[in-house]
Amino acid sequence: MHDDILLKIGKTPLVKLSRVFKEYDFDLYAKLEGFNPGGSIKDRAALSIIRNALRTGEVKPGTTVVESSSGNMGIGLAQVCSYYGLTFVCVIDPKTTASNIEILKAYGAEIDYVSEPDPETGEYLPARIARVRELIQTIPNSYWPDQYSNHYNYLAHYETMSEIVTQLGQAPDYLFCATSTCGTVRGCGEFVRSNELPTTIVAVDAVGSVIFGGTSTKRLIPGHGASVVPNLCQPDLVDQVVKVTDLDCVIGCRRMVRKEAILIGGSSGAVLMAVDRMKETIEPGAKCVAIFADRGERYLDTIYSDSWVSKHFQGMTHLWQKQPQEKEMVMAI
Q1: What residues does CATH 3.40.50.1100 cover in the chain?
Q2: What is the per-residue pLDDT across 160-217, written as a single tens digit (0 to 9) for each?
């Protein structure tokens, strides 16, 4: 029994994955953040940021909250703002899925649509942030949570890591975590460091993301990687970086639902494929935890859509040479 819906944020289940890598001698567990009431790990950061702003007076009755989001953080903020009776404006771009837009509207969020990318970088994120700054200047009594810089984003994930250690009964040997704002990986990494835990932190980034170096290129999966290095990024907290492609995300998502009957979102598919990339080097008997940031229902018109996959990944069968089962599963549609 809970007194309000926000008390249901956190304490998400940890589930052993016994089938997907059954031929390897390590244990893999999934932290299923899709069980948060808003459907993703971003519920934790949204609640942490808004509660702190209410405590400090930066947010008060009548405040308009304005944030840039491709989906999950926007939905998390829409839920929290709805509960506290705050107006929320979410700045989105063409990569935001139709289902996420409808969820935002259902929570009462106002949608501000950026249709053109930043002219210098060709990316939508800088254009969205520029639009947020413009709105903050023109809307009286407005507040920008700035998920890319706000310390209460990563502070929320001290609890995420604490839950994992408690549920597992020990510190995991490996933690696999997708990166975007870097809130989750930094919060978990700070917890590991401050408690001197023997956990190897593996950051899962996107090919085409610049968070851990490289050249910014077009990416299809929202909420995975970034076209700018977030202020929350703390590379010294990360032990290894694994970069995966959009196609890897599709493979991982479809493999998870086929092997474990768990419907996961795009960045979670990337995390699974990072484990796949490292499976030969993980020590026998190791305990590994993969953070799955959200559920798959929000990706039914993209990752789980046969027509969408065919449209975006035609002519890429050479990437399947070592994955014949997934080639049959995904490409023969």
Answers
A1: 5-35+156-309, 42-143
A2: 999 999 999 999 999 999 999 999 999 999 999 999 999 999 999 999 999 999 888 8
Query: Which residue is it, tokens 């703002």?
Result: 81
5-35+156-309 fold: Rossmann fold (3.40.50)
Pick the closest to residue 47 from 162, 179, 159 (CA basis): 159
CATH classification for the domain delimited by 42-143, as one of 1.10.340.30, 3.40.50.2300, 1.10.3720.10, 3.40.50.1100: 3.40.50.1100
Q: What's the angle, vertex CA 75, arms to CA 81 and CA 6, rounded to 5? A: 55
Pairing between strand 14-16 and 27-32? antiparallel
Separation of alpha carbons 77 and 81, rounded Å: 6
| pTM given for the model | 0.92
CB 176, CB 289: distance < 8 Å: yes
pLDDT digits 0-9 by tens, 116-138 = 988 888 888 889 999 999 999 99
The DSSP bridge partners found for residue 205 are 243
- Residue found by looking up tokens 């920008």 in the block: 144
CB atoms within 10 A of CB 32: 21
